[in-house]
Specification:
about 260 residues; mainly alpha; 17 helices; about 0% strand
Amino acid sequence: MSTDLFSADVVTNLDEIRKMLDSSFLKDKIFAMKAVMAIVSTGQDAAVFFPDVVKNVITPSIELKKMVYMFLTHYAEVKQELALLSINSFQKDLADKNPLVRGLALRAMSSIRIRVIVPIVTMALKEKVNDSSPYVRKIAAFAVSKLYVLDHEQKDNMIELVIKLLNDRSTMVLGAAVAAFVEVCPERYDIIDNVFRRLMAALIDMDEWGQIYTLNLLTRYCRTQFEDPNNKIEPDAFDDKRFYSDDEEEGNDSDNEE
């Protein structure tokens, strides 16, 4: 097979790609998955490889696992029954020692837009918002938004997770937590009451994306929850106020007449 992943030979040799996906050599599987993802990137339908790709969801290779997860999430809605077969593998990876693997599994699981797995994803999120890795907790914050969009009935559960994430000590997590708050419950300013100062202090250490979300949220919070100081000053207050009192002015006028 040609080494050029976008060549006509790669696109037409579908049987050879299948054989390489079923190979016992990791090098062949990685090359085959790169070829499959190249086909996907050109806009062609690669769903025909779904059964062959699912077999490789259990692999020690991070590089291969990333591509497999990307493929599964891309075609999960088209091949729902086969996608459900990979859920057990995702759940196993959620307990992996490597935080990168746990994050990949959570991201992939939450990206599969199938309502049947909503309870499973919800349970995974409740566990991973307490993960030891801030990277995994950040992925969990993103997943909260995805799950809420998929099923609005989970709002109460998602609000609990948002509150937990907004109290996270890592600035890596806070930016994503604010984004989740804006998506799930933007009207719940009472939640921000307890974390306002924390967000203000952490703002400088957030990434640019998190800073934009947080600044927008804090601006809206201040405008709606703080009293406008201008409302306490009457427009004509300074016009009516004189430097001297009326009595003093009258006394000065009488002295001048004398």
